[in-house]
Design goal:
This protein is mainly beta. It is about 0% helix and about 50% strand. The chain is built from no helices and eleven strands. The protein starts with a strand and ends with a strand.
Length: about 120
């Protein structure tokens, strides 16, 4: 059984930084595709970063240059470093993973709240 557990969310001021973590059991991140998604109230869930099994990374324009996804294979953990945070980044952030990029949304974590506010 796959279990993904996110942590690291919280309240941060605009311009600040946070690092989210996603720890996994039942799936090996080094041979999986993993993504970070977010959902703000009243909005659809959107992807903010992904990393493939080969290490290819991708970001939407809203996250490019500010967010960085990384993977620690020894800890079987994926991170999302978020810098220059804006109020519009406020959302619940979720980790998802699957065997391939096409099945990246096969497994989900419970989410962690990120609030950007002064």
């Amino acid at each position: 059984q796959v279990q993904l557990v996110e942590s690291g969310g919280g309240l941060v001021q605009p311009g600040g930084s946070l690092r989210l973590s996603c720890a996994a059991s039942g799936i090996i991140f080094s041979v999986s595709a993993t993504g970070w998604y977010r959902q703000a109230p009243g909005k659809q869930r959107e992807q903010v970063a992904f990393i493939t099994r080969s290490g290819i990374k991708g970001y939407p324009d809203s996250a490019k240059g500010r967010f960085t996804i990384s993977r620690d294979n020894a800890k079987n953990t994926v991170y999302l470093q978020m810098n220059s945070l804006k109020p519009e980044d406020t959302a619940v952030y979720y980790c998802a993973a699957g065997a391939t990029f096409a099945t990246i949304q096969s497994n989900w974590g419970q989410g962690t709240q990120v609030t950007v506010s002064s």
